[in-house]
Specification:
Layout (H helix, E strand, L loop, with lengths): L1 E9 L2 E9 L9 E10 L1 H8 L15 E9 L9 E5 L14 E4 L5 E2 L6 H24 L7 E4 L5 H12 L4 E5 L5 H7 L3 E4 L1 H4 L10 E6 L3 H9 L1 E9 L13 H5 L3 E4 L7 H14 L2 H6 L1 E5 L3 H9 L6 E5 L3
Parallel strand pairs: 8-9, 8-11, 9-10, 11-12, 12-13, 14-15
Antiparallel strand pairs: 1-2, 3-4, 3-6, 3-15, 4-5, 5-7
Helix pairs in contact: 1-10, 2-3, 2-8
């Protein structure tokens, strides 16, 4: 038996409960990990609250991220005592995840914990920070340089946005943060944002083309926000889209893409190949200011995760939430 959050769905309804879980619930896998830290992402909030059909197999342990120590392995790459991180791969959706003391997964899904980070710091980064790094890498590969102009980051108070601001500012970019919480301006400028705009400037229906402003965009919001970001990106600029906090729809026209040559990059963190993951984690180790990482992080125990997951969906949480699964 081990302690964790278990999601069930039956005639009595959909429930997420902290409880003792039988080892028999764990799925097949060639590596067993003693989980030390997990985290809460937007997708975890959806899974725990049941507000979106994220979970596709029951019973399910949520948590798309975890960091810990290998306790048993038949995989050639991992031995007991190895320090590992996992992000994505359907964990917490179709395969039991990290909001529990034990996880059993495929060894091919694991990445070695970078030596620059503790397990707690790796979860402070989590899928949100790793996704932010994938967005930055996409903009870099597009050829965008600091001197090309401003970079817009939407959903700036969230996990992706907070880490994206910290990364981009350290790389020399001028970052403009879009947020619905004006009271968080000092927090965002502390991360490195040069300016703050109200999300209402982007979140309502706009024109097919607007005034050119952004050399690049990191968007975690989707819907009208993404459409307006594309419409105001400069000639041959790029937008990295990785989230859908406002919605999955994309009420836009082709005008930015065929009249200004704007490129829209879709950023998938869940099934990204190992080479991409390793590059992202290597760059995080080099380019992320640990002091800023600590500033955006809130720590909770496993017993608080269900309540905080609901707060996350209501926009009451800023930055990153790490979960100590041992308390």
């Amino acid at each position: 038996m081990f302690r964790g959050i278990l999601i069930t769905k039956d005639d009595a309804g959909y429930r997420a409960q902290l409880q003792n879980i039988d080892d028999a619930v764990l799925p097949e896998g060639d590596v067993t990990v003693s989980v030390e830290w997990s985290t809460l992402n937007y997708k975890d909030g959806l899974a725990i609250t049941g507000k979106s059909p994220v979970v596709r197999r029951f019973p399910m342990v949520p948590g798309i991220d975890f960091a810990g120590t290998v306790t048993a392995s038949t995989h050639p790459a991992w031995k007991p005592g190895g320090r590992v991180v996992l992000n994505g791969w359907g964990v917490g959706e179709t395969h039991c995840g990290g909001l529990a003391e034990v996880a059993r997964v495929k060894g091919d899904w694991l990445v070695a914990l970078p030596p620059q980070f503790t397990a707690r710091q790796a979860m402070s980064i989590g899928t949100a920070g790793y996704t932010a790094m994938l967005c930055v890498l996409a903009l870099e590969r597009h050829g965008i340089r600091p001197e090309d102009g401003e970079i817009l980051v939407t959903g700036a108070n969230g996990g992706v946005g907070s880490v994206a601001i910290a990364l981009l500012s350290r790389l020399g970019f001028t970052v403009v943060a879009s947020t619905g919480r004006a009271s968080e301006a000092a927090y965002l400028k502390g991360l490195g944002a040069a300016d703050i705009i109200d999300r209402n400037e982007l979140s309502t229906p706009g024109k097919p083309l607007g005034r050119e402003r952004w050399a690049g965009v990191v968007d975690a919001v989707g819907s009208h926000t993404l459409a307006n970001a594309c419409a105001t990106t400069i000639y041959r600029g790029a937008v990295a889209a990785c989230g859908l906090a406002q919605g999955m729809d994309f009420p836009a026209s082709v005008a930015p893409f065929i009249l200004r040559g704007v490129t829209l990059y879709g950023i998938d963190s869940v099934m990204a190949p190992q080479t991409v993951r390793q590059e992202a984690w290597k760059r995080l180790g080099r380019d992320l200011d640990i002091a800023k990482l600590d500033a955006i992080t809130r720590e909770i125990g496993l017993g608080e995760a269900i309540t905080v997951a609901a707060d996350l969906l209501e926009g009451k949480v800023r930055g990153r939430v790490v979960v100590d699964v041992r308390r």
